[in-house]
Amino acid sequence: MEHAKLDVSNMSCGHCVSRVHKALASLSGVTVTSVKVGEADVMFDPTLQSLAAVTAALDAAGYPAKVEP
Ligand SMILES: [Cu+2]
Predict the structure, then answer these.
(1) How far does residue 5's CA lie from ligand 1's centre (Å)?
(2) Mean pLDDT for each consecutive 10-residue tract of the chain (69 residues)?
(3) Distance 40 CA to ligand 1 centre (A)
């Protein structure tokens, strides 16, 4: 498993936190470590899921995300 920290736009409240959490948790190979307003931490299995697919899923949910270095 690899760790990634995501910078997530458009989040403003607990509702956004639960929507982002749900979008991430629905992806196979992804374990959500934490979600806060503006950021998310995940562990992912690179053989099952790419970071590009993870950020694309958040984009689709209305929360554009980028990977923090
Ligand atoms: Cu919200």
Answers:
(1) 20
(2) 97 98 98 98 97 97 96
(3) 14
